[in-house]
UniProtKB/TrEMBL annotation:
Organism: Lachancea thermotolerans (strain ATCC 56472 / CBS 6340 / NRRL Y-8284) (Yeast)
UniProt xrefs under InterPro entries: ADP-ribose_metab_enzymes (IPR050892), Macro_dom (IPR002589), Macro_dom-like (IPR043472)
One Pfam family from the record: Macro
Family per similarity comment: Belongs to the POA1 family.
Organism phylogeny: Eukaryota, Fungi, Dikarya, Ascomycota, Saccharomycotina
Positions of the Macro domain: 1-183
Protein name as annotated: ADP-ribose 1''-phosphate phosphatase
Catalytic reactions on record: ADP-alpha-D-ribose 1''-phosphate + H2O = ADP-D-ribose + phosphate
Length: 183
């Protein structure tokens, strides 16, 4: 665990005591199910955000693979939810580790572009999903680019990808800094 742009913190990434502006990043499927892991916890805590995610999946399905979408938590102006679409389905049908890593790499690059240029490809997914943040923009305390990038050890739970492989993808995004929560 010696990647220079990744900092590790022991604790729960959903702790109520965290109050700085941050984007909580997680990897998810395109099937509209936040049914396990951190996604389940996000859905339980932020049901309106989960509703946005479901709407997005119902409209675009697997064409979301390799994309990043930012969704407000709606209850906390300091917390935005960053969805990396890395698998078509959840559970045992999520795909191979290699496909998840490939889509994670694409989604991280999409995230970097969207957060720091406030644009996307201009395609239908970006145009449609931009409305989520637009509806919430007046509640944001700082520009989205100033939010810290935080996550649990994505892909390593339900998706079963060894953490060092995902950590390497984070290292490749050398212009970004990530805080990773470990329990």
């Amino acid at each position: 665990m010696g990647v220079s742009n990744v900092r590790y913190v022991r604790g729960n990434c959903l702790a109520a005591s965290i109050s700085h502006p941050r984007i909580l990043i997680h990897s998810c499927n395109c099937n509209g199910s936040w049914g396990g892991g951190i996604a389940y916890q996000l859905g339980a805590k932020f049901p309106k955000a989960e509703g946005d995610y479901i709407e997005l999946c119902e409209k675009f399905g697997s064409s979301l693979l390799g994309k990043f979408v930012l969704i407000p938590s709606y209850t906390d102006s300091t917390l935005l939810i960053g969805c990396l679409f890395t698998a078509s389905f959840g559970g045992s049908q999520q795909g191979t580790g290699d496909s998840i890593l490939s889509y994670t790499k694409q989604a991280l690059e999409d995230m970097r572009i969207k957060i720091f240029s406030d644009t996307g490809s201009g395609g239908e997914i970006d145009s449609f999903s931009r409305k989520y943040i637009q509806r919430f923009k007046d509640k944001l305390k700082v520009p989205v680019a100033d939010y810290k990038l935080e996550m649990p050890q994505i892909n390593s739970g339900i998706f079963g990808v060894p953490w060092p492989k995902t950590e390497q993808l984070l290292a490749e995004q050398s212009s970004l800094s990530f805080t990773v929560y470990v329990l």
